[in-house]
Design a protein that fits this description.
The complex is a heterodimer.
Chain A (H helix, E strand, L loop, with lengths): L2 H12 L2 H19 L5 H15 L5 H30 L10 H10 L3 H35 L3 H17 L5 H15 L2 E2 L6 E2 L13 H20 L17 H23 L5 H15 L12 H16 L1 H7 L5 H12 L6 H6 L1 H32 L4 H20 L2 H19 L5 H23 L6 H4 L1 H22 L11
Antiparallel strand pairs in A: 1-2
Helix pairs in contact in A: 1-16, 2-4, 2-16, 3-4, 3-9, 3-14, 3-17, 4-5, 4-6, 4-12, 4-14, 4-16, 5-6, 5-12, 6-10, 6-12, 6-13, 6-16, 7-8, 7-19, 7-21, 8-19, 9-17, 9-18, 10-11, 10-12, 11-12, 14-19, 17-18
Chain B lengths: L2 H22 L15 H20 L3 H6 L8 H21 L1 H15 L5 H22 L14
The chains are: A mainly alpha, B mainly alpha.
Pfam family, one (chain B): TctB
Protein name (chain B): Tripartite tricarboxylate transporter TctB family protein
Keywords (chain B): Membrane, Transmembrane, Transmembrane helix
C-alpha cells in the first residue's frame, strides 16, 4: 500500500464522529491554553493527558490511543495559534514561542490593525501547519524504513543525541540542564527493572514498584508549578485589551505576508525536525531572517505585518516538524513531544519506526486529523478571535483553584492512589522552585520518558558486545550520532566563550 | 538567578547522586547473563550527577555569578502557604470524605483565598464543578472516584 492509501485510511479514522469531536475539543482547548498567559503548551498537554485517558476509557485500546493522541496533538498545535492572540492584543505572549510576535503585532494593534495581524497570524499558522503535514506524510515512510535498520547501539546513541540536544539548548546554564537530564534518567530507574526483573530503589513500598508515574510528575512539574508561580508572583496583568474591529486583512497585507509565510513555514519545519530546537527558536530565527531580507528593515518593530506572518508561521511549522522524530524514530525532541510520547506509552503504544507498520491507524489517523484540526483552527480563529480575546479576562481567582482541582482529578482518575497525589503536590513545589532558578524542566521530563528505553538499548548493545563499550563507536551510524551529540554540547559552549549570544529554547 | 539556591541546590543534587551510587550497590544481581547488570545504569548516572553538581557548586563561586545578584521580589507567601495547605488537605481528605465534598470545600476555600469577592458565587461555582465532574465521570463514563463517606449513609 502506498503512502496515499495509508493517508486515505487515516482520514477514515479521523472522520469518525467521535474523533472529529476529540479533534475539535483539542484545538478549542489548545487555543484557550495558548491565549491564557501562564499555561503553555506543555502544561496544557500534561493537564489534559489524564482527562483524555479517562474520556477514552470505554474504547478499545488502539482506538483509545488514536483518539487521545488526536486530542492532545490538537492542544499542542492549537496553543501555537492561540499564543499569538495575547501577543498582539495585550503585548504579553501567551507562551514563549510567541514572544517575537509582540514586537510587531502589538504595534499593529495600536495602529488599529489588530484584526489584520490576528488573521494573518491565523492564515500563516494554517499554511505552515499544512506544509509541515505534507512533509510529514512524505518523510514518514523513508524515515521509519531507515530507523528499522537501527540496532540497540544506534538507538542508544540516537537517544543520547536527543537528550544532549535538549540539554544543550535547554536553558541559561548547560550545567543545570544536564543535571536535570541526569536526574530524569535516575528517577526513571526507580521501580522494577525491565530487563532483569529486579526491584531497584523501591524499599518495599508497593507504590514504587511500577516506578514513578510519568503522568503525575509531568502534571505536577508543569501545571501545578505554573499555578504556584502565578499564586506567588501575582503576575496577571490588568492591561487594557485592544478592541478588534476589522477582521479580514487587506489585499496589501496578504501580498506583503505571502512570502514571509512560505519562508517561515519551511524554516520552522526544518528547525522543528531538529531535536532540541523547537518553536521558540524557529520564531526567533524567522523574525531575524525576515528583517534581513526585507526591503524596509527599519519598519520592523513599528508594526510590519511580515514580522507577524513569518514567526507565527514558523512556530506552527516547528510544532508539526517536531512530530516527525517522535512518530518515526520514537525520539521526542522537546518537552511537549516528550509528554505526547508519555501519553502514547500510557496506551502501550511504542512510538518509533514500528508505529507505522504496527499501528497504522494511530499514526495515520493522527496525521489526517491534524489536517482537519488545522482547518478547524482556521475556521475558529478568524471569526471567533473576539471571543477568544475574552478568555483573557477569566478571573484568575476562579481559574487557578480549578486548575489545581483538574490536576488532582486527572491524576487520581488514572492512578487511583493518594501516594500519587502527594507526589503531584511535591512535584508542583519542585517545579516552581527549579524553574524559577533556571533549572529547565523539559530535560527532566525527557530523561524520565527516555530513561527506560535508553537503558534497555544500552544494555542490549553491551550484551551483544560482551560488555565492550567500543560497540558504540565502531558502528558507523552510532558513531555519527554520538559525534552530533557531542557537537550539540560543545558548539554552544564555544559560541558562548566567544561572547556570542546563544538563543535558547525555553519551552514548547 | 539566585546564588544561594544554586549553591545549596548543587549540594542537595550531589547528595541525591551519592544516594543513588550507594544504593545501587545493594541492588541484587540477577541471572540475566552479562556484566551489565541492573545496577550499572543508576551507578553511572549517580556519578554523573555528582560531577555535574560539583561543577555547579564551583560555578556559583565565580565572579560573574555573584555579580548577577538577585532582584528582590515581593512574593505573596501568605497566600501561597494558604493555598498549599488547602491543596495538601484536599489531597489527604479526598479518599476519607469523598470527591464531591472534598472538591467543593477545597474550591470554595481557595476561591476566597484567591480574592473572590462573592461568597455566594464561590459556593455555586465550587458546587457546580465538583458535582458536575462527579456526575459526568462516575455516572456517565463509569470511572472511579471516591464516593460519599459511608457514615453519611447516602
Amino acid at each position: 500500500m502506498g503512502t496515499l492509501q495509508y493517508l486515505a485510511d487515516g482520514f477514515q479514522i479521523a472522520f469518525q464522529w467521535h474523533n472529529l469531536v476529540y479533534a475539535f475539543i483539542g484545538v478549542l482547548i489548545g487555543t484557550a491554553v495558548g491565549v491564557l498567559p501562564g499555561i503553555g503548551p506543555m502544561s496544557g498537554v500534561a493537564l489534559l493527558m489524564p482527562v483524555t485517558a479517562s474520556l477514552t476509557a470505554g474504547l478499545p485500546p488502539e482506538m483509545a490511543a488514536a483518539s487521545a493522541l488526536i486530542l492532545l496533538a490538537g492542544v499542542y498545535y492549537g496553543a501555537m495559534y492561540g499564543g499569538s492572540t495575547t501577543s498582539i492584543l495585550l503585548n504579553t505572549p501567551g507562551e514563549s514561542s510567541s514572544v517575537v510576535t509582540t514586537l510587531d503585532g502589538y504595534q499593529l494593534a495600536k495602529q488599529g490593525r489588530a484584526g489584520a495581524a490576528l488573521s494573518i497570524a491565523a492564515i500563516g499558522s494554517f499554511v505552515a501547519g499544512i506544509v509541515a503535514l505534507v512533509a510529514l506524510v512524505f518523510l514518514a515512510d523513508p524515515l521509519s524504513d531507515l530507523a528499522l535498520q537501527f540496532g540497540p547501539a544506534e538507538y542508544f546513541s540516537l537517544m543520547l543525541l536527543g537528550l544532549c540536544a535538549v540539554s544543550g539548548l535547554g536553558g541559561k546554564s548547560m550545567t543545570k540542564a544536564l543535571m536535570m537530564t541526569v536526574l530524569g534518567l535516575l528517577l526513571a530507574t526507580i521501580g522494577i527493572d525491565n530487563v532483569s526483573g529486579v526491584a531497584r530503589f523501591t524499599y518495599d513500598i508497593p507504590d514504587l514498584y511500577q516506578g514513578l508515574e510519568f503522568l503525575t510528575i509531568a502534571v505536577g512539574l508543569f501545571a501545578l508549578g505554573e499555578v504556584f508561580k502565578t499564586i506567588l508572583e501575582n503576575d496577571h496583568s490588568s492591561q487594557e485589551i485592544i478592541k478588534v474591529e476589522r477582521i479580514l486583512p487587506t489585499k496589501k497585507d496578504l501580498k506583503d505576508s505571502a512570502a514571509p509565510i512560505v519562508r517561515g513555514s519551511l524554516l520552522g519545519f526544518f528547525i522543528g525536525v531538529l531535536p532540541g530546537a523547537g518553536a521558540t527558536l524557529a520564531s526567533f530565527f524567522s523574525y531575524i531572517m525576515e528583517k534581513k531580507w526585507s526591503k524596509h528593515p527599519e519598519r520592523f518593530g513599528k508594526g510590519e505585518i511580515a514580522g507577524v506572518a513569518g514567526p507565527e508561521s514558523a512556530n506552527n511549522a516547528a510544532s508539526g516538524g517536531a512530530m516527525i522524530p517522535l512518530l518515526t524514530l520514537g525520539i521526542p525532541g522537546s518537552g511537549t513531544t516528550a509528554i505526547l510520547m508519555g501519553a502514547l506509552l500510557m496506551y502501550n503504544v511504542q512510538p518509533g519506526p514500528l508505529l507505522f507498520s504496527d499501528h497504522p491507524q494511530i499514526a495515520w489517523g493522527l496525521i489526517a486529523s491534524m489536517f482537519i484540526g488545522n482547518l478547524m483552527l482556521l475556521a475558529l480563529n478568524m471569526p471567533l478571535v473576539k471571543v477568544f480575546a475574552k478568555i483573557i479576562e477569566t478571573p484568575p481567582q476562579y481559574l487557578l483553584p480549578m486548575i489545581i482541582a483538574i490536576s488532582v482529578f486527572g491524576v487520581y482518575a488514572v492512578q487511583i492512589s493518594t501516594f500519587d497525589l502527594i507526589l503531584l503536590v511535591i512535584c508542583g513545589i519542585l517545579g516552581y522552585y527549579l524553574n524559577k532558578n533556571d533549572f529547565p524542566l523539559a530535560p527532566l521530563v525527557l530523561g524520565l520518558v527516555l530513561g527506560p528505553m535508553i537503558e534497555n538499548n544500552m544494555r542490549r548493545a553491551l550484551t551483544t558486545s560482551n560488555g565492550d563499550f567500543s560497540i558504540f563507536f565502531t558502528k558507523p551510524l552510532s558513531a555519527v550520532f554520538l559525534l552530533c551529540a557531542l557537537a550539540w554540547l560543545v558548539v554552544p559552549l564555544v559560541l558562548k566563550r566567544r561572547g556570542k549570544q546563544v538563543v535558547i529554547n525555553e519551552e514548547a | 538567578m539566585n546564588v544561594r539556591f544554586d549553591r545549596y541546590g548543587s549540594i542537595a543534587f550531589a547528595l541525591v547522586g551519592a544516594f543513588f551510587i550507594a544504593e545501587s550497590q545493594h541492588i541484587s544481581t540477577s541471572a540475566y547473563g552479562s556484566q551489565v547488570g541492573p545496577s550499572m545504569f543508576p551507578f553511572g548516572l549517580g556519578i554523573l550527577l555528582v560531577l555535574l553538581s560539583l561543577r555547579l557548586f564551583y560555578e556559583t563561586f565565580q565572579a560573574k555569578y555573584r555579580a548577577e545578584g538577585q532582584a528582590v521580589e515581593k512574593l505573596l507567601y501568605k497566600r501561597f502557604l494558604l493555598m498549599l495547605a488547602a491543596t495538601v488537605l484536599y489531597v489527604l481528605l479526598l479518599e476519607p470524605i469523598g470527591y464531591v465534598i472534598a472538591t467543593a470545600l477545597f474550591l470554595y476555600v481557595t476561591f476566597l483565598v484567591m480574592g473572590s469577592k462573592s461568597q455566594w458565587r464561590s459556593a455555586v461555582v465550587s458546587l457546580l464543578f465538583s458535582v458536575g465532574v462527579y456526575v459526568v465521570y462516575v455516572q456517565l463514563l463509569k470511572g472511579t472516584l471516591p464516593g460519599f463517606p459511608a457514615w453519611l449513609g447516602v
